[in-house]
Design a protein that fits this description.
Number of helices: 8
Strand order of the largest sheet: 1-2
Radius of gyration: 22 Å
Number of domains: 1
Distance between the termini: 63 Å
Strand content: under 5%
Length: about 260
């Protein structure tokens, strides 16, 4: 596989993993409160619809849209997505924004759905709809990334296969670890995806406008390394801006050793 294919497969796999973990959290909560049959059927329906969207939209894009135009448009879209993911990941990694808490999302979903756990053979309309909606909404961003990366590089099959692998892996992990989703380093994956999407965006916008990168596809890992370095610097610099909370006792400031000043 070329450098572009490897980087593309990793980017799609990580992005799909992040989104599917978020969807799985809701599906697990739905199954525990409304019944597993409805939760599984709703999830399967969502995955099936997403697969149809990839086939219906992606194949015409690959065959009928000029590659130069496609790369400029898709490259710009990837830049927007990538910078958005990077911004959130940097804010969370630097302490300016709370980390994503899958356990809290699970508890909130259970509280909203309410009711005792239903039997595995019982169908529940609410359970089906909630699971379907969770998979569909979280999966739409995956579809967007699959179509963007896959059609721009004419590697739709590689992108779709990477997304499918992530769905299978997350589903299998969900059966094994159930609610222990908070241990997954989600923000690290989001940061990696943001770096890769931004790198691909810059690469394809430039290629679509006629620029020929030195080394061709080898420019992709160089861009990834460059954006990763900038991200690391940004996280380090923003961490220094976070002021530690200083307790107050009887109106006096107390230093970290406990002595009043």
């Amino acid at each position: 596989m070329s450098a572009t294919e490897v980087a593309l497969a990793i980017a799609v796999f990580l992005a799909s993993t992040v989104e599917m973990v978020e969807a799985l959290t809701i599906v697990l909560a739905t199954g525990a409160t409304r019944g597993w049959r409805s939760a599984i059927e709703g999830s399967a329906a969502g995955v099936a619809l997403l697969a149809v969207l990839v086939g219906v939209v992606g194949v015409p894009l690959v065959h009928y849209v000029p590659i130069g135009t496609l790369r400029v448009v898709i490259g710009g879209l990837l830049l927007v997505l990538g910078l958005s993911w990077l911004r959130k990941a940097i804010l969370r990694a630097s302490g300016h924004q709370a980390l994503h808490d899958e356990d809290r999302i699970y508890a909130d979903t259970v509280a909203k759905l309410g009711g005792p756990a239903a039997g595995a053979t019982r169908r529940d309309a609410l359970g089906f709809v909630v699971s379907f909606k969770a998979v569909l909404l979280e999966g739409m961003e995956v579809v967007l990334i699959v179509l963007s990366l896959g059609t721009s590089a004419h590697l739709l099959g590689v992108a779709a296969a990477s997304a499918a692998a992530a769905v299978i892996l997350v589903g299998a992990a969900g059966l094994i670890v159930a609610r222990q989703l908070s241990s997954i380093p989600e923000n690290v994956m989001k940061m990696a995806v943001g770096v890769m999407l931004t790198s691909f965006g810059v690469f394809w916008v430039a290629e679509g406008t006629g620029l020929h990168w030195p080394g061709s596809d080898l420019a992709v890992p160089v861009l990834v390394a460059g954006f990763a370095g900038v991200t690391a610097i940004a996280v380090t610099g923003m961490r220094a801006l976070v002021r530690p909370a200083v307790p107050r006792v009887a109106g006096a400031l107390v230093d970290r050793e406990g002595a009043a000043r």
